[in-house]
């Protein structure tokens, strides 16, 4: 029961709906006595989501990297050879490259 109380209190900022939101804050005694509906599925969902996305303060901030594909690379230079790329090309960069090429050729309107 105590774990439910602590979970309910920790999610108070995240989950506020129904009568509890309009009546104001509930006391720990009301929660412990069971007079307050506790949405256990919402609590579990928020905990699972928190584990899945991780702690945002521990994530490294993305720095902009130099593009792998040079600005003067042509379609033939990049895709006509049967050789492997020297390093992996991010999908977003490859999409940008192809869209630029298709715009130049009038294939993407």
UniProtKB/TrEMBL annotation:
UniProt cross-references to InterPro entries, sorted A to Z: Gag1-like_clamp
Pfam families in the record: clamp_Gag1-like
Domain Gag1-like clamp: 69-109
Name of the featured protein: Gag1-like clamp domain-containing protein
């Amino acid at each position: 029961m105590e774990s439910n109380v602590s979970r309910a209190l920790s999610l108070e900022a995240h989950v506020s709906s129904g009568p509890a939101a309009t009546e104001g804050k509930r006391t720990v005694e009301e929660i412990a006595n069971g007079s307050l509906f506790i949405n256990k599925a919402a609590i579990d969902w928020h905990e699972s989501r928190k584990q899945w996305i991780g702690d945002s303060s521990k994530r490294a901030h993305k720095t902009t990297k130099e593009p792998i594909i040079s600005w003067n690379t042509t379609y033939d230079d990049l895709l006509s050879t049967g050789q492997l790329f020297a390093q992996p090309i991010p999908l977003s960069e490859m999409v940008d490259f192809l869209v630029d090429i298709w715009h130049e050729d009038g294939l993407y309107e």
